[in-house]
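Incident review: delayed structure delivery

Summary: a single-chain prediction request sat in the queue longer than the usual turnaround. Root cause was a stuck worker, restarted by the on-call engineer. No data loss occurred. The affected request and its eventual output are reproduced below so the record is complete for anyone auditing the incident later.

Affected input:
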Amino acid sequence: MLRPHAGEDATHVIVLSTVGAPQKRFLGRRKARSVDPLPSVATVPVTRATIIDAVALSDESSADRWLDDIDGETLIAGALTALNRVVGAYRIAAAQDGARDVTRPQALVVRVGWGAGEEVADGRHRA
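Output delivered after worker restart:
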């Protein structure tokens, strides 16, 4: 939950997940082995960030009107601002100054839509 200040109502719900290939952890040195000169293309892990507006829409027709009337670019810019607040909090909490802010060109896909809580948290939308 993202709040402007402690004790205030939430403005966004941020859901982070890793999709794609599982992350591998290498502990210690591995013994060298031969490999194919032309390896197959591997799937890489990708982080999915879902930024959910904490203000609920009253019904499906309101949600459809909202989707028709929004300025997608403005909404995306606000979502990036919210996400970068979380990245900034991570930098402070983990003492990881190398974590960079997220920019629009880094996104593989950007979607704007609406749906029920858990389906949106999983990256799915009704519309």
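Verification: The beta strands are 12-19, 46-53.
Action items: add queue-age alerting; document worker restart procedure.
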